[in-house]
Amino acid sequence: MVQWTLIWAGIGAMMAASGALLGWVVFPRAVHEKVIENTELRQGTDQFKRWEALPQPLDFKVYIFNVTNPYEVMQGRRPKVVEVGPYIYFQYRQKDNIRFSRDRSKVHFSQQQIYVFDAESSYPLTENDELTVLNMHMNSILQIIDNQAKETITNFRSDVNNTLEKIPVVRVIKRIIERTTPIQVIPTNETYDSLRLINVELNRIFGRPDTMFLRTTPKQFLFDGVPFCVNVIGIAKAICKEIEKRNTKTIRTMPDGSLRFSFFSHKNMTDDGMFTINTGIKDPARTQMIELWNGRTSLDVWNNRSTGPSSRCNKIHGTDGSGYPPFRKEIEKMTIFSTDICRTVDIKLSGTSSYEGIPALRYEIDNNFVNEIGPEYGNDCYCVNKIPKSIVKSNGCLYRGALDLSNCFGE
């Protein structure tokens, strides 16, 4: 009897040891390997299909400041604004031009983005709400004209004179006038005359605006575009041609030759560059981390030192926000590279959550990425100061919540 007791005790001990081995070693390792298998990017797998085309769209939310007293502002009063939003759009992402490296550790691709208005989630707001906003394109163009007015008019006059000189009758008449008319010196202010002439032409370019503000809709302002430079001639046409030559992302040329301004039309149904990311096959901790963007590890958008490596502001790192490496523990922050604003942004741990009963960690964008900018934060490389006559702090940077994206938008 004692012998059988010892045998059963031995069997129990072996089963306990086996259970411990399975529970502490075999099963966790199997789960670990399964997680890696379902997160690394291999062609033909379910994860690759999910990565190639996100199974559900991302939410893209837009808030717009509506100016309620535009005419009072023109009289020198302080603007009154009301934040309207969110206007919510589905953002669909589709990977194209997919090509793997020879060792399959990296994958190159472009990513098309498509925006579709989500009327249900945006309700009661609609794309056709009438809003009064700052006339962004007119304000930007006036700043350009303020700096280049004399040059623009001088070039236009030179072009006209060169064209007239090619006409024989005009050359003859000009020579007769020169020989018969006494030389007179008339003092003029060419810059003043040029600006006065341009003021007249601005009405043709922008359709006789009565304020610096624009009455428009979210659909037009964000994607369809606000039209200007419609059926222009003469100097107005010359100015519009100069605007077109600048090749600004937010302004596009229409088939009839007119121009349109919008914030995001250049992002809709287009790709945002060529990415190279890590597949995670060799190093799961690098899964979907960006290795290159447009063949580079850094940008030339923000300020760099005269010598040495690129500044921290120009460094490209993190993911594109649609995926992350596995086995993320409660680390304080992760990083996303956003092509929309040409920079890396930190997302910080804000707490725990769950999805259909599965525990999860919740991360949110650290809003200080536009609030804490300056030499005291070690990131004054973001202070590009390309906006003419902008109000800046004593350290040379814009005030809290503002980021100069002139270089990013090619303006």
TrEMBL record:
Gene Ontology molecular function: scavenger receptor activity
InterPro entries linked to this entry: CD36_fam
Record has Glycoprotein as a keyword: yes
Location in the cell: Cell membrane
UniProt key word Magnesium: no
GO CC field: cytoplasm; plasma membrane
Pfam family, one: CD36
Spans through the membrane: 6-27
Protein keywords: Cell membrane, Disulfide bond, Glycoprotein, Membrane, Olfaction, Receptor, Sensory transduction, Transmembrane, Transmembrane helix
An example Gene Ontology biological process: sensory perception of smell
Function statement: Plays an olfactory role that is not restricted to pheromone sensitivity.
Family note: Belongs to the CD36 family.
Xref: PANTHER family: SCAVENGER RECEPTOR CLASS B TYPE-1 SR-B1, SENSORY NEURON MEMBRANE PROTEIN 2
Full protein name: Sensory neuron membrane protein 2
UniProt organism field: Anopheles darlingi
